Batch of 4 targets.
Target 1
Amino acid sequence: MRTDCRVCGGEVREFVDLGRQPTANGFLTPEEADREFFFRLAVGVCGRCAMVQLIEEVPQELRYHGAYRYHASGSAGHRQHFEQNARRFLDTELTGPDPFVVEIGCNDGVMLSAIAEAGVRHLGVEPSTNVAELARAKGVKVLTRFFDETTAAAVRAEHGAADVVFGANTICHIAHIGSVLRGVDELLSPGGVFVFEEPYLGTIVERTAFDQIYDEHVFYFSVASVRAMAERFGFELVDAEHIPLHGGEIRYTLARAGARVPAPAIASLLADEAARGLSEPETLDRFRRTVEGVKDELLALLRGLRADGRSVVGYGAPGKATTVTNYFGIGTDLVPFVVDSTPSKQGLLVPGSHLPVRAPHAFSDPYPDYALLFAWNHAEEIMAKEQEFQAAGGRWILYAPEVRVI
């Protein structure tokens, strides 16, 4: 446990405790159920730089390994988003005579595969060997290592400076953030940019998206905290824009101080955060109380449905499902199983709560009365695909930002 900020060393004040939790993507077999790793999932805010962060962290080797279950290509929406990212970089930052892009945490190569197809020099730095192999199968060049300043120096020595360093749902995962930024400083060309897309604290608070809090997400970025972090390591926040991924993220662009003119959006977003008191104790304490209310309402609904003899199945097994089921105490008595389209999760158990994960065909064999949508950030895509469920009288249960039945 730590009470000093990982970014600036300031004092961190805890504001929410989501209890004893396992690693969110540590899906396991029944035989492994008695050997799980658990930690206290609590979050605090730095009084100096406003960075929101985990109080306790899980060693990165326990989170990213050869059996990592998250595949970024698993959603059609994700594939489209990252293909658009690739096109954007190819049209803007990667137009020089011999451009080079490095992606921190490239996962299964969903973004870099489009860069590779364009014949542009690239490198993914990915510590999880299984997803790294999936990326290589798509023609992506991958270095299987954790990214830090040592790795960055090795990459620069072999490949030269990068025009773009990119990360998506990765930078907020890395506890040694200072080493990451020193590595970016080592690797980035003088006019290059460091672009990263991460869950947004403003969205988490506004949507009561507490299930975005789990072991992999060490930091919960705001525009104010990212600007302070950038300045501490010699960078400047030059752009920030909302993107719809995972229910609402922000894409941050950092450049060397003075290298680019900051976009007007930054001042607007900073003003909005200040007006909302986003990092203020009162706001964060109110968020905790709201989460506690959602817990009470959802459990009352599920218990009432069970008492009435209604069937409920979980839909989607993202890392968010681990947080919800463990903090709320949702077991197989309330939700007998969860369906998920990721083959590597099927036949395993949701960490901690041990809900069985089944293939999608189990959803319609037969349809349940209700489906608890853990993958709520893909609600539109999922509901469009599962129209027969609704036609058969099935109803969806959502819990962010409040409990409701559709």
Target 2
Amino acid sequence: MRRILTLLIATACLLYSAASASAQVTFSTEAQYAILMDFESGTVLFQKQADEPMEPASMAKLMTIAVVFHEIEAGRVSFDDEFYVSENAWRTGGASSGGSTMFAEVNSSISVEDLVTSVIVQSGNDASIVLAEGIAGSEGTFALMMNELAGDIGLDNSHFTNSTGLPDPEMHTTARDLANLARYLIREFPEYYELFSIPEFEWNGINQPNRNSLVEMGIGVDGLKTGHTEESGYGSVVSTEQGGRRLIGVVHGLNSMRERTEQARALITWGSRAFERIPAFPEGSVVGQADVFGGEKAQVDLVGEGALDLYLPRGSRRCLSAQIVYEGPLLPPVRQGAHVADLEVYCDDALIQSAPLYAVEDVGQGDIVRRASDALKELALGWL
């Protein structure tokens, strides 16, 4: 049962809200799928079909890069290692394949650092396959590693079948999962993130610019990845620290590179400029509670990930309302740190922000008296 608890937000926020007239959230996008996320808290400021399955195209290479970085951090791979360019990598991802390529020579060996740079800057399909084969022996086994790490990250609506993002009916992701994947890369591997803003990369005498054209536009975008197939259209995952905080944006399902660039630019610029930040809940402060059916405690306290701020459209303070939403009652055991609810903030009737909430502590199963009383309470609620 979906439970909704109207939330009285901090007094400071209510004082703010009395100051100005109501306004409407006005942003829209031509993208079929889109999301805008605050990096620090995971708060969502805009979304459009963010949980609908979609073909990732070359944005799947972010998952490839995540596996490579994970293997480097674990000490199993080094940037100085050299991997062999197989005939499969050359034929499937090389120049003759017609897709984005590094122009790697068959039977040559290339360092992991150069392969990673090619994947990020040139979107090299051949480089992606060479990395997959060099780490896992085959691209199929590497895809298993991609899905295992995706599960660890919490990308619950994604399934990867290859390292390149080349079309496969079994491969899918969502805009939300791609934003969370970008968030993982930025948070866990900050020492490597500068690779995403390299303006160009040359290999085999061929110089190619970064396919993410926003990197060179001077608007503060410093990553991450573009993608395109005939079936899926054009998309990109972008990030910027403009506006005093880092934002991550995803757009996909567009009709051209020009449209992709413009829609991604519009989304990330709007997010950087159109909101004012209002502190609401300091780090560790309780936002609310969720009911636990048959638990040793009747409720569990909920907190955000770090400090939880509200980002309100400028001139829209009076429209503020909020609620905690979760599927409940929760069933024990509830684990400390589990994502069990969301804080939803509205401007008039428009959802303008959604932030994950987490259980403060473990809640185990209660005794038989507790379970019986909770059963009666739920039955009474059902009658009502």
Target 3
Amino acid sequence: MPQQSLEPNTRHIAAIDLGSNSFHMVVAKVVGNDLQLISRHKQRVRLAAGLDKEMNLTHSAIERGLACLAMFAERLQGFDANNVRIAATHTLRQANNAHLFIQRALEVMPYPIEVIPGEEEARLIYLGVAHTQAESNSKLVIDIGGGSTEMIIGQGFDAEWVNSKQMGCVSYTERFFANGKLSKKAFSRAILAAEQKLESIAAHYRETGWEMALGSSGTIKAIREVLIGQGYADGLITQKRLYKLIDTLCQFDTIETIQLPGLTDERKPVFAAGVAILTAIVDDLAIETLHFSDGALREGLLYEMEARFARTDIRMRTTENLAYKHAVDIRHATRVKDLASALFDKVARDCHLTNKRELRAMLEWASLLHEVGLSISLRGYHRHSAYILQHTNMPGFNSEQQLLLAWLARFQRKALKLNELPSFSLYKPEALHCLIKLLRLAIVLNGQRGAEPLADMHLTITKSGWQLSASRRDWLEHNKLLHADLLEERERWAHAGWALSIDPVTS
């Protein structure tokens, strides 16, 4: 049952961040135009440490993750699916068997898990910081996780430069501090490796500049707490303080023997690697002072979930920008979108679709972007469109949403090789097939690319298949080319095992 709030005019929402080192959950309530945090929950899972040499999560790592999600699920009993968002980051992006973890996770927590690209993670981190740190307009935001590090420059609530680098406190601990020994040489090697990762972006970031530099999440929070314990009451992070902290750490023989005020036992195993990564960033980006922000990825998820906090729908902006970049014929794409949406409304119930709002939106975005590949070549443009949509940074879309757009574009025309469709955890095959059919019909029916409106189209689903007709009985008589295209489309459906009837059929 959906959660029933005891408070009038409130909505309870929750966001979960499945990080490489820890899982985090934050619960909030929306009252009017205000979002109030109610509770935070954190569990160290060490998911990244459970990746084997073949990049598969070990059984023990999966069990740790599931045990944490089972605890979180207790707090979320009664929450509607629309009020919970779960984002998985670097480790589940890398794990070959991530789909197995996600499938098992659904058994303990009945909410979909989104694996988000690194750039999308960076954008959401920035959003979380921007909403909780309003002192400056222009910001540099840094977030060092277990497997990746995100660096973002933005203005207000908009992330303008986003980067996600594969360097994290867990992975760097395994590379440079695997024996547990602390030495100047180990720190130098780790710092140099991080600087090599930063080489391609450092100059541009320095040239762009920012008013305030902010760090978020556990690694930077731990460094701040230790610096306070070292007598720096303001908790500010500087280059000089970081190098002094490295000197202090090197006074201990091993990671296990570190004893510093403010450093928890939980954070200790990966602390040295985090210090090395942050030192490289502060050096290369010439950061004078780094402040700490409580906002992070999970807060970004929360604020984006609540539409009243969104200035515009980020996914619509992304779609419009991509269409403009690739010189899409917007008038034609909009006609395809409008027809696809109208047809969706006619068959959504008979297709037994769940989450109709999300699927309808995905169909509309796919309609608007189905011809981006024409900017490369007319020949095989559906394949070009698929490639662009799969490999372009698309703010607002998680990895599966982006993959869905790509495959809708791939199957918009020509043969239907359904055996090539990848498996999805967020979308059922029946839903994918429905969206493919709708997009193809909308494109065929707009094949003449004219501004003249089509006859009022009717689409129904019967036991024998899909049936397409129009309000005018003579619609095919006056559209010979369209009729031929529909007959050809019917043949392609038949080869895929689908049935399409066109009423009336005159041949």
Target 4
Amino acid sequence: MLLVAGFVLAAWNLRPALAGVSPLLNDIMGDLGLTPAAGGAITTVMVLCLGLLGPLAPALSTRLGLDRTLLVGLLILATGVIVRSAGGLVTLYVGAALAGTAIAIMNVAMPGLVKQHFPSRVGFFTGVYVSCLVAGAAVASSVMVPLAREHGWRTAAGSVAVLALAAALLWAPQAFRRPAGGGRAAGRGRYRALLRSRTTWVVMTFMGLQSLTFYVMLAWLPTIFQDAGLSADEAGYMLGLTNLAQIAATLTVPVHAGRARSQVPHVTAAAVLTMAGYVGVLLAPAALPWLWMIVLGIGQGASIALALLIITLRAPDPASVTALSAVAQSSGYTLAALGPVAFGLIHQATGDWTAPLLAGLGVCVLQLGSGLFAGRPAPGDLAAVAAAGTTGPGGGRTIIR
């Protein structure tokens, strides 16, 4: 029970430090005298860290083991959140980078931890942690403004550190129960084998494209709805509704998909629902917006859950899962960081939302195409990855303890 409780609370920490910034942005900019571009850079720094620093997780897990790597991530997260909230301009961005680094490490480690601790219930525990990820973001977004109103933005933003420290305390017994290491080395041979595998490239593409379509809508949906005539409050409620729909999808889809031999039907349904949501927002944003948000949320929630589930299912052991997770998530979040900017530039060039949403639909079609390949089981395709991690230069086993 302690293992499950620590795993769940750690998963709750995957997004509050990121999702809690936007509601406080006006307060932060006013206090520190930031321009809108400088304020937006707080989130950009964190998302770029998610994309660029994911490979730190396999490096740490090689030396420390996955359990201790998660603990290190939680402690870095708490430190980063405190630094981000405690000082001026320099500490704001340094703390944001530390928090983003921690989230990158934990993002990559979680699929490997599922494979290591719950190998017979991969679908269920993938659903649990992805649901916690989405719910943590939704809760953080909703409580930051009331907290800031009562105690100031620094206390509100810094409160996330309490959650991270609580998770670290709960996870610490698990981290120190096992000897350091606990997995095979994720060295150069493992990554060479990964990059030679067709499975790696299709999983990487699927992860990146579904991340892009998600972050585009996260960034621009409220603006699109307001331009269509909805009030700011109504636009915010619509974004909250799609988050709730995502939670419903992440709780149920991985459980069913994890028991199936092929995930192709699931990724197809998820992509079609996401496209239907885009079409609804494109053609009639002010007519039945709640329906489009439910459809979009189910599609996007199922897509992220399936991307992470497929990472866990396709690789043969926890170390290989962690390496594949690092490759797929690093590329995915780097691509996701560029999506909202490209979407905004298309809107700026055309003056309306038709062309950006059509471009988003095009990305959804590519997501479907990559998902059709990623969702197919490929027995033995990544076996070379595990083999590459178990033999050193002299042919002997290099199991790190």
